[in-house]
Amino acid sequence: MNNLIGQKRNLIIILILSVLTCLLMMISIQVGAVRISWLEIGKAFIQRGDADLTYIILHYRLPRIILAILVGSGLAVSGLVAQQILRNPLAAPDTLGISAGAALGAVSTVLLLPVEMQSTWLTSLTAFVGGAIGASCVYGLSYRNGVDPIRLALVGIAVSACGSTLVQLLIIQSSTNTNTVLLWLNGSLWGRHWEQVMQLAPIIIIVVPIIWLLAKSLDIFGLSEESSKGLGLRIEWMRAILLLMTVILASGSVAVVGMVGFVGLVSPHIARRLVSGGHRYSVPVAALVGAIMMLLADVIGRILAPPLEFPVGLVTSVIGAPYFLFLLWREYKSKNRAG
Amino acid sequence: MIPKWILAVTSLAILLILFVSSLMIGSSWISLATVIDYLLHYSTTVKEHIILHILRMPRAIAMMLIGANLSIAGCIMQALTRNPLASPSIFGINAGASFMIVLCTIILPTVNGLVLAGAGFAGGLITVLIVLIMSLAIRGGKVEVRMALIGVVIQALLSSFTQGLLIFNEESASKIIFWLAGSAAGVKWEEIQLLLLFSIIGFVMAVSLSRSLSLINLGEDIARGLGQKIWTVRIVGSVIVIVLAGISVSIVGPIGFVGLIVPHMTRYLVGTDYRLVIPFAGVFGAILLTLADIGSRFVNFPAETPVGIITALIGAPYFVYLARRQSRSSS
User: Fold this and answer.
1) Per the UniProt record, which residue ranges are transmembrane (chain B) (predicted)?
2) Nearest to A310 among B140, B164, B173 (CB)
């Protein structure tokens, strides 16, 4: 009976979050350098509106919104899986060095290879390689009789610092364009079109549902070490496969929008506070929370000082960092009470 | 352990050699004879002398002073918090100072050095207050490591604010980005005067505080038992850190990891008596940053690379090493 009430509550939360996402999408289409009325938006979708406005909506705002949702859910699910399989509440694409590694991979492809050799696929691939290298560095360096959560975070910070310094070095050497620097180091949705949506969409649309199907296996990682070990070798395989998916999701997102901070770290915590009942629910909820966080950050970035816009990654850091501090404080408090 | 006077003589000799090399090396090579000639009698008719006087000399002096400042600030922070991971960059003081300075340059584009230094102090002060409040809110457990994590998060927050400010000022943004990476290219003599003044004040204060620092480093209870006023030492120490880090950031931008590495090096070589650690850390810091500055001219020769990038690439692996060692000793 209790279980049934819990399920109902979870479904209602998913519904509320979906409605919130839709609302933010509509606001996001409306606001920006040019404010567009609902009527015009409606007309644009049935191809009856003003040609310029239709162009703005279909070629600037819409891809941008879809990209925000894709990146947000990709990073959030990536963080959720990482935290679960590593049993580490501080694991996330940023702290695991995946973001910095992926950015380094993507930036070196974009800046160092001649234009005719470049393709979005190659960028995604090098980002993935960079992300995987970053993650293995962090995991390897913080391993010492197991991985202590805070040690992992510190090592991750240092490895990320190295990665973003190298990104900075590459950019300073090749161009001094402010937008490129801000874009790669902070993550930005500026100037993103359908091409980038097409680059990221297949990854998210394939990998996130697979993770959702593996929700039962994810739950197993939450059991105590002994009981999950009892299930034998399969769990190590599962861990490897899930870790690979984490890297794919995060580096795919970074390859398209640059390093977006704190979304992958904070969204899983919010998701777990919102729903109970295993990863069947927390995977979609985390994805929705991540999407909402990105959409919200993007809208805030655009309405603060139009026509200027703040990179979305800056806004997510400003929202996410205090929440992260709050998490640390709460974790410390609960530990103190227990001890 | 190596006798102190040998260590002092060797390190000063190394510093002198590096100082002279830093004058000689650059996009145009200047011979040792010309450098000595310049140091003895400067003449405005010789082209090399002008290069040395306008470009290389202020830069070399700035690097030495700032290396010393950041290292001494790091020493004081590590002693006060008894935290081997403490340093102006890790705890966000550099980031706080940068934020205020960038804010200042954007609001008042024609601002002078003294105001910028003041902005640096204000930014440093804000960060120190945040870190202090956090350290009061979060006690117990592996507090050292947790503090470092909080510092890094605050740093991320502050640098997000700084980069957000850049959006308002597209024209000078690329200049500010270069400055934010930490670079001593283009330091002027007026800035050196200001830097020298505050560095000397900070250094004298640090030396006079060094005995108390050694005692606090033994443990707060012991220090209190020996008649130390813990909070006075903490406040004075924080003021010194703010002055030293703030003035450095206002002139060359945030340079990371020097303040983290050098205190460890120094304690390894001279022990934990802060009356010795502070002056030695100053010299070692000057050596490290001068070396990094010389290195920065070769990375992308003949173009300049910000020196902060070099120190970050040296310092980040060292931070990994410290973080690994730290959690082993406390578990």
Assistant:
1) 57-77, 89-108, 114-138, 145-166, 194-215, 235-262, 274-294, 306-323
2) B164
